[in-house]
Amino acid sequence: MAAKSQKTKNVKKASKPLKKTAAKTKYQKVYFFGNGKAEGHGAMKDILGGKGAGLAEMTNSGVAVPAGFTLTTEMCDQFYKNNRQFPAGLAKDVDANIAKLEKAMGMKLGDEKNPLLVSVRSGAKESMPGMMDTILNLGINDKVVAALIKKTNNPRFAWDSYRRFIQMFSDVAMDVDKHLFEHALTEAKHNIADKIGKEKKDVKDTDLTAADLEKLVGTYKAIYKQAKGADFPQDPKTQLWAAIKAVFGSWNNDRAIFYRQKYNIKGLLGTAVNVQAMVFGNMGETSATGVCFSRNPATGENKFYGEFLINAQGEDVVAGIRTPQKISLEASREWAAANGIAESERKAKFPSLEEVMPATYKKLLSYKNMLEKHYKDMQDMEFTIQENNLYMLQTRNGKRTGFAAIRCAYDMVKEKLIDEKTAVSRVLPEQLNELLRPIFDRTDKEAALNSGRVLARGLNAGPGAACGKVYFSAPEAIAAAQNNKEKVVLVRIETTPEDIKGMVIAEGILTALGGATSHAAVVARQLGRVCIAGCGALNIDYANKLMTVNGHTIKQGDYISLDGFTGEVILGQVKTKPSEILQALIEKSLDPKKSGLYRQYKFIMDAANKIKKLGVRANADQPDQASDALAFGAEGIGLCRTEHMFFGGDRIKAVREMILAEDVAGRQKALAKLLPMQIEDFTGLFKTMNGLPVTIRLLDPPLHEFLPTKEVEVEELSQEMQVSVDQLNFKIKQLHEFNPMLGHRGCRLGITYPEIFDMQVEAIIKAAVQIKKSGRDITPEIMIPLVGHIKELQILKDSAVAVIEKVLQESGVKLKYKIGTMIEVPRAAMTADEIASEAEFFSFGTNDLTQMGCGFSRDDSGKFLPEYVAKAIYDKDPFQTLDQTGVGRMMQYAIENGRRVRPDLKIGICGEHGGDPDTVQFCHKIGLNYVSCSPYRVPLAILAAAHAALK
Amino acid sequence: MAAKSQKTKNVKKASKPLKKTAAKTKYQKVYFFGNGKAEGHGAMKDILGGKGAGLAEMTNSGVAVPAGFTLTTEMCDQFYKNNRQFPAGLAKDVDANIAKLEKAMGMKLGDEKNPLLVSVRSGAKESMPGMMDTILNLGINDKVVAALIKKTNNPRFAWDSYRRFIQMFSDVAMDVDKHLFEHALTEAKHNIADKIGKEKKDVKDTDLTAADLEKLVGTYKAIYKQAKGADFPQDPKTQLWAAIKAVFGSWNNDRAIFYRQKYNIKGLLGTAVNVQAMVFGNMGETSATGVCFSRNPATGENKFYGEFLINAQGEDVVAGIRTPQKISLEASREWAAANGIAESERKAKFPSLEEVMPATYKKLLSYKNMLEKHYKDMQDMEFTIQENNLYMLQTRNGKRTGFAAIRCAYDMVKEKLIDEKTAVSRVLPEQLNELLRPIFDRTDKEAALNSGRVLARGLNAGPGAACGKVYFSAPEAIAAAQNNKEKVVLVRIETTPEDIKGMVIAEGILTALGGATSHAAVVARQLGRVCIAGCGALNIDYANKLMTVNGHTIKQGDYISLDGFTGEVILGQVKTKPSEILQALIEKSLDPKKSGLYRQYKFIMDAANKIKKLGVRANADQPDQASDALAFGAEGIGLCRTEHMFFGGDRIKAVREMILAEDVAGRQKALAKLLPMQIEDFTGLFKTMNGLPVTIRLLDPPLHEFLPTKEVEVEELSQEMQVSVDQLNFKIKQLHEFNPMLGHRGCRLGITYPEIFDMQVEAIIKAAVQIKKSGRDITPEIMIPLVGHIKELQILKDSAVAVIEKVLQESGVKLKYKIGTMIEVPRAAMTADEIASEAEFFSFGTNDLTQMGCGFSRDDSGKFLPEYVAKAIYDKDPFQTLDQTGVGRMMQYAIENGRRVRPDLKIGICGEHGGDPDTVQFCHKIGLNYVSCSPYRVPLAILAAAHAALK
């Protein structure tokens, strides 16, 4: 009974995926593909597996694929149900398909003249890379190897193929310990060491000659016989059935079972088995192998692009021993020109495929067109020409640069190949980054690379290209830039808020310490500066104004170039040019109509804006940043960090006066000086944003960040402030903190020094009143940082409301305003229900929430976080991409509890993560209202939000 | 209909609480008490309110209470239901009760010879302190004031009483703005400034003479007339009804409504009104007033204890203008002897109540006995003798020292007054602390206080008394103690692990910086050392080996004394003596049978151990600490901090060698030296704990804590290690962290340097194997610190299991072991379900969980946390008492999710909070299996766990 019911079940199961296919394919055991026609197709992954369906699809698209056939996943299922026996009738069907295959290829298994070799590969519905078995070169034996030698005139290749096959087949199909073969190989290499004059350990596989390999094949066969008590099987069909059995068996090996458990892959029938003819590009001058792209993957230009080698195997193209030739004549000529090769030499030594095999080239061109049309995307293809027969081995959507991505997407819409939504989905948000940054002149950069001028690599913390003279201090950088109009690169062990003016003026910033969210990196991103952070190889000597890097000494005033895309630090000058988009959008120095790139960018961003649901704001502290943000499409300011306003010349003096004051009266006196400046700051921002929402965060950093740290600076300050150096040092020591991240900052300052927050609130409201009086609308949002406890918020909100009502009463203006809070302390996330009863909005400060939630200091974690990412403890740096499982869970908990208490609670995120595409998509998923990020990341966030909405 | 049904409801509502009382009390509107009998009793809080029920209860207990009556809460309910009209028949009942009251007191309202004054007070079922209104001295008028003058011969008192009554009555009952009276009072004071030769602002209320006050009464009456358009009411009954109305009205004032909302007080009928005769102890030589305790509140001795003053008001006893006299003759004589007062002088100037009023004394004695028997607890009583009539004004359970608490509890069980459970509930866990610490000789301490030798106050971080010579560095302290057998007090700006030997050898530790969980405080508690931390007044000058404190200069070698109970730093020597319990329990220097205190302690602890459900373990790193912990009743070790084992002489060398090693091989070489030492450590612990569970935490602190910080120490280390100073400094700089709390420590060390954890695991298992081989049982628990991500635990657990299985295989011993984790990173708490899939136990590290959860660094929070506690943002320092709302919620979330995945998950807590009684009770509530705390806090934790179980 049980068996019967199970059988019925199986039939049902199996019939389901088949519904889409024709009735005649029901119960078909083996599916053939080849000669331009396949019995299956791309939608049949259930029974053909991913690879089998892909091969069928490619065949059906009209290109020549090495023929083959696929044993269905149902066969695997039956195999296990039958106690690891092949289902009845399978052998017959396989035999029939072998015959078809031999006919299609014009070759025969085991033939002594024209032997067919095949690959036997697994392929389940879901990709399980590396988990199951593969056998190549099946069909080779003592006679076939001789035939191969004859055909290829390459005995080394033939013997090496045989050797590899014996090892692979014995290990995978016959369970012979593969180490036995590896030992034999090692021994063979040691044996020739003296002969070729190398140390034993230095001998490579490629040092073995055809004769050596022939001898090794003998040894391998002996090993096999010793292990199995029988000769190595010479009959290709015997080989084939053993290989099929092995692939079916590998479905339930430990690795595969573990993989399916880990990735929760369930309900599959088993693996399919793909038997496909092997083709060789090294069968003489009528054979070749190559790779090509349907469009240029660097520029996106719709030109056929690729390389090939005559009489070569696939790995030869990659290995770089021979110089690959270009496929099209045009590309070949361009290449020769760029490399200073005369046309005659080119034609003789490096002719194009178009010239050498014009018919095959034409065919390849038509394949390219067919495949791109079929897959509706730029294709990256591998092909082999075997004795004038062109075979496409693989095609996939091609990887491309940002420039190519946006151009392809735009062009393909114009070509009516894809629609707008698809175009948006084709550009990765990160790729936009590239389009916005200054770039190196490609030739100049290549020259630098080729001449060994790359000094070191650091973290690519701010993309773009920068070139300038090195300065090791902000004042000297500023002086050089202002007085001598020099382009400067600021190099620091690490940066602090005191360096900010130097950072503004520098082309690029290079630091020895700090991670992706270090001060340098964060500010650089906000300013749109090129930045390489945490470049450990720098040995900076401030005293002598120089640094040594891997043996080179760079003095103040020497040129270096920073590639913020790659993290490369390059000695000397490399020519840069600004992004066309920036020229058109921000600098207004380029007529947008004249820029193709801008046109493409605008097209994609417009489409993305139509698609996205999530709001995108910017983090901006100054009107110019706000104006950039608007140009980039920001819908408001999500975070104005008021502390950045405190560093200007006169301001820092007043701030320091306030910090050094001994009592409330003294602080208030200093704050009174800051008040008009802050009013001006906020008025400027409000004006620029013209009615869009502006969220202003009250003072956040600990006060010691505003005091100098160096002796000489302390002395200067002492004179300026008329306060003794001792007193200053005492105050600095008093304010010192062991763990400043967990110290006296944020709303804690507001609790202990209410007058600071009061001044800021007064300034915000007075600025808003000015705007309102001028007839424009404004709803300022006041954000209180680092709240951990509802009572902090209550106290500070009460205090703010009192100040606000007083200002409004005095001014006689009516004004809406909101008071909300950052959610950046884990305790706040845990008690979000309490906090939502007071807060009118939440903004997740995910930098701090990550620091405290994960217990990582962003300033220190560089010491171990790379190892954490390397060991896959975190998939990505949690300061760059939000840790969704941990910090994300905390956010979800807070959202759920906050909205339970206040259903219309507006929730945003304003940490550095707000500009990270993965995080933006997560924010969309968990129901945030908006993300806020630095202006230069706004386009990325918009695009990521569109991608999230498309999912 | 609606009105009717509501009426029925009310009857039902009201009848409910009345069920317990006799049928005749049904619907009774007013309840009388006086003359030794009350119509109500203590269980009638529903209708008499808390105060009314208490007065009835006290009256019924047989003591004389100033007579009075209570208008029920039902009257208040009816008052509101009747649109703020008094219920019908109430006036009649009040009149009848006034008559009773006048008879009981032998005085009459408004009488010109013997006037009765009354107080009118609110009193709901639930205490709502300060929310509702009270009027005192009601009944006073122009005629009565004259009578009072005559009776008391104290015109100032009489006029002041009148003045106060007018103000209070006008404000509370008649809604006259009280500021008007306050202005008049201020003016009156300013007017006499010249006359008495004071600045206006310095004139006090007490500077006003009877004549001034009489004049002020005139002004007050004029203010009243101005405000109300009528004369101030002279009729006492008019006054009374206005007062009753005001008290009823105050039930629904904003403050009271807010209070009930805030504390979720629901379902009450309203407030009762208590009208009670006022009595005066200042009516001549036959009057007096005093306070007394039924037993000695300092020692618990069953001796009557109290003070009084003839012809005085209650506030005079407290004011300290006159020296209060003792109540009993015995106490009076003892007091005189202690203060060097001759018997003749004592008798003349400070006679006891027993001598002055023997009959009244006898009565007071009998009242004392009655009340203690009635309330079954030591009573703190207030009494007034008015013209030879003794009245008890208040009795409540008396506050007492730890010594008194335990003695009373013990004695009362022996006296059969209370049972064991009650006895356990009578001793507060914190009080045990006092019993275990060395104490100052009381007389000597008082002498020090009286002679102004208290230099400053700090945080009472480690209770007890310590006296010794000041040393400002650990090495000098050690030298002085070891070479010269000096008792030393170690004074540091702050302590670090390098000071640990000095801390061990010191009597007491005093620091200028740091809070309750600073290194100094934590280690001091663990070592049982007296400690005063964060004493900001210290100005320590290491270079000159001295400190200045509020103008005093203390040099190295000078004596100071530390009162760790109070935080007082005292100049010079104060005699100390060790706790008897310690002598008996730990030092074994005292025969337990000879110590009454020990007997009491043992009795209470045995009872507590029977009651509690929660396990109590200790944090201990050394066998001697473990042995102390056992003596204190610990049931295992919940936290062995292995880093403390790394600081011994040879060990720190090997540790430093490991840190300075450039590669794995170098580290392994150094670790090999540590291995045998660690095996010895763990073997010792296991032996001492004899089968009880021992949880060992792998290395937790960042490596830089093991390196020296001072130049001279670096130079020493350089010579010792044969490493250049530059190299050392480079390493130290390399290891420096901006936020070490969030840095490279805990399991992060295990991830980057697996060999360190491997060595420790090997040592633990080898030690356990030795124990097992010797025939004893052992299940070591290996705890991995600072886990934030399941993958950290997976990697480190896999690595540990590999080491363990290897050791076990080699030894041939079978052993159970557990691998668990600290939950101290918020992320771990948030992903406890994932982590529980790997962890066999959880231990909450609430120090770090508080630091990261609340975002407070325990080393820095001293700068703002006191203000936070002062502003009631946190009720208590969250590093001392767990923040239940925030951090506690995180714990509950983790427990819930952890046990969902692993239902039998053992969960404990091993932060400093494990010894805090409130936290222990919370841990009981949320279902922890055990708490773990420093050995000296184990008894507190046991008692707190018992209290939790009793609740």
Description:
The structure is a homodimer of 951-residue chains. With 951 residues, chain A is an alpha/beta fold. Chain A has five domains: 1-141 and 235-278, ATP-grasp fold, A domain (Dna Ligase, domain 1, 2-Layer Sandwich), CATH 3.30.1490.20; 144-234, Up-down Bundle (Acyl-CoA Binding Protein), CATH 1.20.80; 288-400, D-amino Acid Aminotransferase, Chain A, domain 1; 438-578, 3-Layer(bba) Sandwich (Glucose Oxidase, domain 1), CATH 3.50.30.10; 612-702 and 737-950, TIM Barrel, CATH 3.20.20.60. In chain A, strand 19 (508-511), helix 22 (519-527) and strand 20 (530-533) form a beta-alpha-beta unit. The longest helix of chain A is centred in the last third of the chain and has 26 residues, at 664-689. Chain A is elongated. The two termini of chain A are 45 Å apart. Mean pLDDT of chain A is 90; it is low at 1-25. At the A-B interface, helix 30, helix 32, helix 33, helix 35 and helix 37 of A face helix 30, helix 32, helix 33, helix 35 and helix 37 of B. Chains A, B: Its cofactor is Mg(2+). Chains A, B: It comes from Termititenax aidoneus. Chains A, B: Its EC number is 2.7.9.1. Chains A, B: Belongs to the PEP-utilizing enzyme family.
